[in-house]
Design goal:
- The protein is of the alpha/beta class.
- 39% of the residues lie in helices and 21% in strands.
- Helix 1 packs across helix 5.
- The chain is globular and about 45 Å long.
- The chain starts with a strand and ends with a strand.
């Protein structure tokens, strides 16, 4: 299942690499046009502007390394996405998806982080099959730490049914993750070791070396 154009919606810089960096690298290497929208980030009032400037520069390096064709930042302060008018967030994500004519979209699973939940809702709206060029494949990815902190039996659990073999692209994914020095250092829950362990486990579920897992929102073939 090789798309012509893949769009990834990331709540924050590094989510795209943690959740689907292997798939991004694989598809880009196979000639797929990949675009990434990073919605939020470490911005005032909770963080100094310098924090966002650092992660933006890290993202630029990581995305280029994975072969992403173009990317953009909405620059909404982290944890405040839900405070923006729903129509505004929906509209900006929809505009990006439509501008890139994505036939496959990867979006964040609605987990413990409020930004992830709001952006999931907005992304599903952006991918509604109401236009002839609407995405035919919509998948939700897992993000190390946040996705696995949901309360079992109370909140939705990430139980995947779609996998992408990333065995040949883990080196590139890990090199991209390493670009995010400010995010992964001293963070065991999203460390390179944890990232590799999760990919190894997902691969073991499917008879391959390494893999990334997804929940299916929609697949039309």
């Amino acid at each position: 299942m090789l798309p012509k154009r893949l769009t990834v919606i990331a709540p924050h810089p590094d989510d795209e690499t943690l959740g689907c960096g292997g798939a991004i690298s694989r598809f880009a290497a196979q000639g797929v046009e990949v675009s990434v929208l990073i919605v939020s980030g470490h911005l005032p009032p909770l963080y100094p502007q310098e924090a966002f400037d650092i992660t933006r520069a890290e993202a630029d390096k990581a995305l280029a390394l994975m072969g992403v064709a173009r990317w953009d930042f909405l620059e909404i302060p982290a944890t405040t996405v839900h405070q923006r008018p729903v129509a505004e967030v929906n509209g900006k994500i929809s505009a990006f998806v439509r501008a890139n004519v994505a036939d496959m979209v990867m979006l964040p699973f609605p987990d413990r982080h409020i930004d992830h939940r709001v952006i999931f809702d907005a992304s599903v709206v952006a991918c509604r099959p109401v236009h002839a060029d609407a995405p035919r494949v919509v998948l939700a990815y897992e993000t190390l730490s946040e996705t696995h902190w949901n309360a079992p039996g109370i909140e939705p659990a990430f139980v995947p049914e779609f996998y992408i073999d990333t065995t040949d692209y883990m080196d590139r994914k890990m090199a991209a993750l390493d670009c995010y020095a400010s995010q992964i250092h001293n963070a065991p829950s999203r460390s390179p070791e944890a990232c590799m362990a999760l990919a190894k486990f997902r691969g073991s579920q499917n008879g391959c070396g390494y893999a990334e897992a997804f929940k299916v929102v929609r697949i039309v073939i």
